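ugh ok fine here u go
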Amino acid sequence: SCHAGEWGGPDQVWRALAIEPWRIAHGAPAADDEALMAELHERGVTLDICPTSNRQIGIGADDRSAPLPRLIRAGVPVTINTDDRTVSSTTLLDELEGAVARLGLTLGEIGVAMRQAYTAAFLHHDEALRAELLQGFEAWLAAHPAGPGRSEGYS
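structure:
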């Protein structure tokens, strides 16, 4: 895992791929490069996206140009995060609600990002725990049919 893209645009994310990360904190500028999004999708590299932080530093300052919807719709594995809650003054619930209300993500797309968070979680290779947590999330989804659905996503 590494940081890339908070500053330096898509080129910084391309350079980060040289170390073959499985996860990149931030990386939002990848949304401005179709080839980079395809590469991230192909490699299965997860980007941790922080919408409020992105907006604060001028990445997708206009909600219509926000990177999160473009990344998720291009099949880039993403998680939705708060970055530094004390600096950004946000919560994960704020970020998820904003992703739907401001950025236009569907509940299905939120579900895709939440599944990816379990898939990419730092669990020290405890795959049994990962499977248990993901199974719990899937059970929660099944009990809440109005919540994030299964109709959208990547595998």
